[in-house]
Amino acid sequence: MDQVDEPDWFAPRYPSAADDPAGSSAAPAGRVTGGALAAGPLPARIPPARSAEHTGHTGPAGPGGGAGAADVPVSGHVRTADGAPIAGAAVTLADLSGRQIAVSKTDSGGQYRLAAPSAGSYLVIASASGYQPAAGVVIAAGAAASHDVVLRGGSGLAGTVRVAGSGQPVGGAIVTVADGRGEIAGVTTTAADGTFTLTHLAEEQYALVVAATAYTPVAVQVVVAEGQIARRDMEIPASGRVVGTVLAADGDRPFPGARLSLADTAGVEVAATVADASGHFIFNDVPSGRYALVASGYRPGVIALRPDDARSRQADITLGLPGR
């Protein structure tokens, strides 16, 4: 059978003499039609392509920095609006599709260090407790890129709620702040010592309202400045209850439907109610003070109420019969 010449592109070729430093094992280039390949140096192993996704970089390029030779260091500072550094802020580097590339935290001076896998545009996202998160775009090009971040917030309100007149702390009081649009911006409860703290408030004027059982609610205006904790102590007047029963003239039967009112020392009516079918009545949230309790039905009956340490007073009253 005639030998068929194979095309040159099919024939393996030996390395050239330039590829063999010894120069002794190389064979001349040409076609191989049979027999074994002559010994020669194997070509160097081609390294696998490096993935474009990096999720573990936390430092700059260089020894110990966690960045490869092609990485672009990205660094900067995270500060407040007045320039103070924010330590421990979380800083994330992401591509423009939102995919996370690297995460780091700022040091005591507010500085962070990250590494982009290659030149390009990236998102830098910073967040810290008590501040509103912020994001920006950094262009990583050349040897390094720098991007500073300003976090706003860190504003709040703190104070102590006490009883008006006595100065005793009020624990369990509900503290509410509403912004200028009437929307609730924060709610908290006072501790046993009457203290409260509200954070994450924007720079604005607020209505501060304090309410508690057996106390009269109080509301004031407060102004919270950017990056500051405003201090506002509150005093709320104590209030109480007046409960009792209206009886008929003989003192043995309840007097349902009697009208009762509380009048202050100036004779001004401050509250009114009607006795139920059993003659019982209740006045809630009565501010501390002296009052006259007046019951009208047949012949009015009047008794005086004086303040004391008790928040609930029992006041039974008897109405007379007509003409007696």
Question: Could you give a quick summary of the protein structure above?
Answer:
0% of the residues lie in helices and 41% in strands. It is mostly beta strands and 324 residues long.
Tell me the layout of helices and strands.
Layout lengths: L71 E8 L10 E5 L5 E6 L5 E6 L3 E8 L6 E7 L4 E2 L2 E2 L5 E8 L10 E5 L5 E6 L5 E4 L5 E8 L6 E7 L4 E3 L2 E3 L2 E9 L11 E5 L5 E6 L5 E8 L3 E6 L4 E5 L6 E3 L2 E2 L6
Parallel strand pairs: 1-7, 1-8, 9-15, 9-16, 17-23, 17-24
Antiparallel strand pairs: 1-4, 2-3, 2-5, 5-6, 9-12, 10-11, 10-13, 13-14, 17-20, 18-19, 18-21, 21-22
Largest sheet: 4 strands, mixed
Secondary-structure-derived class: mainly beta
- Helix fraction? under 10%
Encode the helix/strand succession as letters: EEEEEEEEEEEEEEEEEEEEEEEE
Beta-strand fraction estimate: 35-45%
End-to-end gap: 150 Å
The number of helical runs is: 0
Characteristic key phrases:
mainly beta; single chain; four-stranded antiparallel β-sheet
Write structural notes for this entry.
With 324 residues, the protein is mostly beta strands. Strands 1, 4, 7 and 8 form a 4-stranded mixed β-sheet that branches. It has a 4-stranded antiparallel β-sheet with strand order 3-2-5-6, with no helix packed on it. The chain is rod-shaped and about 100 Å long. The protein has strands spanning 72-79, 90-94, 100-105, 111-116, 120-127, 134-140, 145-146, 149-150, 156-163, 174-178, 184-189, 195-198, 204-211, 218-224, 229-231, 234-236, 239-247, 259-263, 269-274, 280-287, 291-296, 301-305, 312-314, 317-318. The termini are far apart. Residues 6-67 have low confidence and may be disordered. The protein has no helices and 24 strands.
